[in-house]
Structures are given as C-alpha cells and as structure tokens.
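User: Small ask, check this?
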Amino acid sequence: MLSKLNLTFALAIISTASAAVVTVQVGDGGFVYSPQNVQASKGDIVSFQFSGSPGNHTVSQANFSAPCEQLEGGFDSNFVSIPSGFKGPNPVFNLTIEDDTKPIWFYCKQTAPSPHCLTGMVGSINAPTTGNTIEAFTNAAKALTSLPAQKPGGLQGIGASASSPPSPLQNGASQPPGASTASNSPSSTSGTGSSTGSSTAPVSSNTSPSGSNTNKSGTIQNAAGLMLISFTTLLSIVFSA
C-alpha cells in the first residue's frame, strides 16, 4: 500500500517536471504579442515576457465575442511599463493552463497613444484553425470604433491563472496605476494617459501581424534536467518502499 502511494507521489513529481513553458513576447517590435497564438496543454506554463522597450502593455483576458473588454473573472497582468533603453531582466507574467479544451483570448488595455487593442494587439491560447480563429478575433478587435470601458481583473482567470504579478520589476520597469507610457518605437518620447483618455505620446504605426502564428515551440522548454532528477527520485522511492 505504501509502495503504491510512493509511486503515485513520484509520478506526480515527474508530471509536474515535464510541463512545457511556452514563451510569448509582449510589445517586442510593436503593438503585438509574438507568437500571436500558441498551443499549450493542461499544466503547461505560458510565459509572457514584457520585452518591448519603451512600452507599457497588459495581458488581459477577454471573451471571443468582446475582444477588447476585460472578461468577468478573467486574469489581468495590469500595466507593465518598460523604459527606453531597458537592459532587463524582462518582467514575466506566467499563466498556468488549467483547461486546454477551450481557447483562451487576451488583449492589451493600453489606450495611449491610441487603444492598442483596436490596432489588433490581441492574442490567444489554443485558438482553433476554423471558426473562431485568431484571425477572426483580431479582425473583430480592429473593427471596433472605440474602446469599451475598462475594469481591472485579477491573477485568477478562466482556463488559466497566475500565482503572482509580473516580475522582476527592476532597472526602471514598473507597474503604474493605469495607462501611461505606450510607445514601442525607440525614437519616441513617453507620454502619460488614463485608462479612458489619450496621451501626447506619438502614434505608432505598428499593428498586429497577420496569420495565426500557431506555435507550441514558441520557446518551449521541457525541464529535462528536472525530469531526470525526478525519475531518479522515483526509482529510489519505489525500491526503498
């Protein structure tokens, strides 16, 4: 009986160790998430790296039918501001996938110098290739003429949740209380806006890339070393029981 319990525990360790980490760059090269759509299984971690400098973005959960509106009960990274000339380390927002049977949609809440979501700064996890695709979601966001009223979300989401806010916040990276610096062009100057207003920051022409960019290898890192250690632990537990 004890042997079976030990085996179950060891297998649980190995299952955790084999979870993949799927990386998504936020704001790197414009008002974009890259890749725009990724595939992830239950237990995998989707790691959002705020790498656009300068920039200020969010990763906020939405519904397919309301691409630029915070989903009730959905996750929200809050605003992460990256200054010009930022050298890192990039703040990271990690979401653990809890339900991989349904697509997860997200967008950027930033309004300055213009609403990022309306330019197509949206993304997805496990979006299908037909029907409610990432292309359809992007087009729906671009078709909006104004940004809906925004409200805050939390770390817990629907289908995916985070255990902590974006971190580390070092070397000028910060989480301002609302929309502010928004430019992703190195030659641009920073501006300050509100969650519903505009900013004096120059307008960026960057828009969301076309295509689904479906990519589970968007830097998937299987913890091979940890798996080996876990397997060794499994053997020692089983044979010592």
